[in-house]
Amino acid sequence: MTGKIDNTISNKANEQCLFCKIAAKRAPSTIVYEDDLVVAFNDIRPIAPVHVLIVPRKHIATLVDLEEQDDRLIGAMVWRAKRLAEQLGVAMTGYRLVFNVRQHAGQIVDHIHLHLIGGKKLGSMA
Ligand code: 5GP
Ligand code: ZN
Fold this sequence. Notes:
This protein is an alpha+beta fold. The protein is about 20% helix and about 20% strand.
């Protein structure tokens, strides 16, 4: 069936969501890239010289809430991370891409975001 209604509470446009607000420029951030699908901005508490968050404009709370039809969105996020890594000069030395998912991973903002982290040698994953 086409036109499936998205009726999960977590996926509804969220007026209170910080990253929805940043994507809509209703909250401040340093945006480094935007298009109709994704927005990328500098993390407010960077853990490395390059620390960018890549988010979809669509509100999806966690990767657990991802649906099959969101695959293009995830592709766009990873593709943008690859391109930004090149533009920010970390593609040759390498970088880390991270999705934190819910409590055990320490997800603190409930709007999916891909961390692009680089510019120094990173420690091993805990
Ligand atoms: P999480 O732990 O949910 O994967 O990561 C959330 C990230 O969002 C953290 O790295 C945190 O520093 C960042 N963050 C939290 N609030 C803000 C904000 O208001 N602006 C920006 N640019 N980043 C934020
Ligand atoms: Zn949101």
